[in-house]
Please model this.
Amino acid sequence: MINKKEIPYYILILLLTALAGVLRFYHAYSLPFNYDELSAVSRTHYHSFTELMDKGVMTIYTEPAGIQVLLYYWTKIAGFSEFMVKLPFLIFGIAAVLYAFLTGRLWFNNTAGLLAASYIATLQYFIMWSQLARPMAPGLFFALAMAYHWTHIVFKPGKRYDLHWALYVLLASCCAYTHHFCLLFAAVAGFTGIFFVNKRYLMRYITAGIMIFVLYIPHLHIFFYQLSMKGIGDWLGAPRNNFLLTYLDYVFQFSPVAEIAAGAIVVYGIAYRIWTRTAPGRFFYIALIWFLIPFLAGFFYSRLVNPILQPSVLLFSFPFLLLALFGLLPKLHWAIISPALLIICALNVYVLVYQRMHYDIFYRAPIEQNALLTDSVHRALGSKALTLMELDRDGKRNELYYMKKYNLGSSFFVVDSSMDMVSLRDYLQDHRQQFLSFATMAESNDERIPLLLSFYPYLVKQYDFYGGTFYLLSSKAGSYASPFIFTSGNNFEQAAPAHWNNGNPAPLTDSVHCSGGRSFRMDSNREFGPTFTCKLSDMITGKNNLITVSVEVYPLASMDNVFIVSTIESNGKQVDWRASHVADYVMLGTKKKWVSAFHTIKLSDIYFAPENAVLKIYIWNKGKRNFFLDDFDVRTVKGNPIIYGLTEKF
Model:
């Protein structure tokens, strides 16, 4: 029998669930695949389950097999359209809102459940992962649902004990098969129950744990194989000491107002506890521990072994931090909590739509947009344009999806990570056109940008996406602007220009030169060449700028162990050091011929305070080689301001 006094709270959670559905299903047929989703979809075409495990999970997948198996069978039923592939994940994300309320209500009161549900319904953190066919939304649902049924068998055993027991075993097993951090969360919950379960039910609880382990046995060999890989540290950096603060800033959408609103609720809860002199109950500490253990385990593993901690892996446990903090509040009358929920939802949705621009940025995935733009350039300019598209090493595996979907042509040159700079330069020299389009991804080799600009130095149009950029460049000025917002060059014709130091005395010579009448000579007695030094604030307009370096080199012998080096110092400490090997641009055996070498600094990949930073660029003749230098240029390109726009402030 439903208590009539509870009906307004049920109406509120239904409204929140409906809002969660609207925010997730908004223009759902326009949702594109991202790189990881296309990779997962491409691994559903195996002819057998055994082949799926061997080739689609064991060799290239770093997560449990559950979601890949789900996609394998779901796509056989529903097909491969973006909407149908994402549909189960959208539903999981919405259902998680309901279970957040039910768990919060069971642990604390309606107030805590509704507040936690309102944030899960409206924050981009939860919405975005619900719109991706990845393990996060299912894992979020399984974790919250498992906690609800776990509570019933540990703290509230009753008539439906067997049902809750079976659902706990099932949902904990689903956690284990979904994501390693979801598995960790289920394990923490399971061990927690041992300390609280009624002695009468202890054996049945232990039996549940044994059943969960038995159900996981088929996956153990995959788990230990993936554990031996130790993580994904080849691209993910170790977390900094302020990771938790930056994580919370990200979760609350980088909005000071949203953070103040959430903080005010927590302060009210703390003040209430102090005023009433009531200590938090056991569920406060359980919820806090359930968040802290996965966070601390990921943090210290990332610092001591290999980086694995990133915001997405805390999605399963973060709702319990919300429940812990909101659980400090007393049960509020529905007439009081309703306006608060309205303000929270309105604020979060406003930030989501107008400040984070979720529906503009997230709905324009670079793989789809780059394929469409490359095709449109080819159709519009034909033979006047050279079209380059950056693809994964497997050739057109991901991009092929959109080529087939839109019936696009394939008249473009493939640039992948296996292509060296000499091959790309030779291709550009042999296929000169008036225009060039280049579709690139965030993970690309950024030294390609100055190489392309050396052939096509004028920007016709730049399209920015989250995770990728599309450039249309021209070899002729016409009405097109220069892409450079700062330029400083050293041609060694006169005294060193501002920001440059050629040494004293400078080893200049007129015996050979690329342009003008002089060049700079490097030999076995000179380890360091000309140096550029400048405050970054004087040469950049934003944190997403690219700094490009080009220099002409004239080898007299091998250029092995000769580098273009850049360093960034901030507040007296070196925060970045990187080098480009000049030999990468010199064909083996090349001598007495001018060759261009390049170096790029992608500022968005460096953690530092730009206003206090100093950039230094120099030639490091580590190998003590003999060669000449000329036309040493440092430039700044605007870059892509939303390259990491879904996960960083912009």
In short: DSSP finds 22 helices and 16 strands in the chain. The domain at 366-474 is CATH 3.40.190 (D-Maltodextrin-Binding Protein; domain 2). The mean pLDDT is 92.
